[in-house]
Amino acid sequence: MKTGIAGSIVAMVTPMEADGSIDLPSFDRLLEWHIESGTHAVVIAGTTGESATLSHDEHCGLVAHAVRRVAGRIPLIAGTGSNNTREALHLTDSARKHGADAALLVTPYYNKPSQQGLYQHYKTIAEEVDLPQILYNVPGRTACDLQLETVLRLAELDNIVAIKDATGDVERGRELVERCAVAGMAVYSGEDGATFRLMQTGARGAISVTANVAPRKMAEMCALALAGEFDRAAAINDELAALHNDLFVQGNPVPVKWALQRMSMIKPDIRLPLVQLDSSFHDRVEAAMAYAGIRPGPARGAEKKLYV
After folding, report:
1. Secondary structure element (H or E) that encloses residue 79, with its range
2. What is the distance, to the nearest Å, from the Cα of residue 172 to the centroid of all Cα atoms in its chain?
3. For residue 44, what are the β-bridge partners?
4. Does domain 7-227 have CATH number 3.20.20.70?
């Protein structure tokens, strides 16, 4: 494989203050918690990190801050995608300069490019920025679908090393895993509910929302699956199944930020046009947390003991 990054890769939230500013102390606590809990890598400023509402300065500054804080203890992947190729180039090059280990680039949203347009977009960034790059296909959000043949063309480029598949189509994912393996390209699940089944076919892990609230269990499940211990991995995955589903009862990251607030890990704030989780979903998300063994509401400072 072109990359050694594997396992539970958390798509980390960006904690915020009531005035919309980034809450760096809570961000740092989350990073430390993930490292202590065995999370294998972290994505900063991805979709779950509210990248769509971060300014360029905030985006680049948050990646730089995270690189300093993590200090090489686990791989750090920067979300650097955009529907503007020049902007994606800028963000990817900034991530390289600040020391990120890789970049995650979502397909250009809204523009609806052709497959040739997608190829040229990714090829341009790969050729201009010397940093390992992960493709990210999530047609449900972008109205743009990166087809397998385009992925395989891009796999010929040395620094395109992996793809995050968030189509939710497990059968399609199986073919993607098989074909990408021949090209030496890793596949990560971008749908928590599909992760276990994709890892059974050879996917190298997950870029996970669930890992935000259950980092140790996601890390254990992925490590067991990578080792081929699928029965043990399945037992853990069963405990997380309700979270995989119910952390998406409203648009990501609304439910996961609410869950982290219930765990006293972050403040509840989120940027418009997103708003806090509708009260009609509170009991459902809390029940999913309880099923996974997550208890709400400790005082700050107790997180390390409780949420493992």
Report:
1. strand 76-79
2. 20
3. 78
4. yes
In angstroms, the CA 146 to CA 150 distance is 7
Q: For the chain, what is the radius of gyration of the CA atoms?
A: 18
Report cis status (omega within 30 of 0) of the bond before 296: no
- pLDDT (tens digit per residue) in 278-303: 999 999 999 999 999 998 765 444 34
Q: Which two three-digit tokens encode residue 92?
A: 């990817």
Given a cut of 90, whether residue 305 has pLDDT beyond it is: no
User: Residue 81 corresponds to which amino acid?
Assistant: G
228: left (phi over 0), alpha (psi -120 to 50) or beta: left
Both tokens assigned to 65: 């801050």
Residue 306's pLDDT is 38
Q: Which residues are catalytic, by number?
A: 136, 164
Handedness of CA 188, 194, 197, 201 (dihedral sign): negative
Euclidean distance between CA atoms 297 and 33, whole angstroms: 16
Domain boundaries, the chain: 7-227
CA of 272: how far to CAs of 61, 141, 147, 295, in Å?
A: 21, 17, 32, 28
Under 8 Å CB-to-CB from 203, ≥6 apart: which residues?
Answer: 165, 173, 177, 186, 187, 188, 189, 195
Sign of the torsion formed by the C-alpha atoms of 260, 264, 269 and 275: positive
Terminal CA-to-CA distance of the chain, rounded, Å? 31
Strand (E) or helix (H) holding 117: helix 115-128
- Model pTM score: 0.95
CA distance 99 to 201: 32
| Phi, psi (deg, nearest 5) at residue 300 | -60, 145
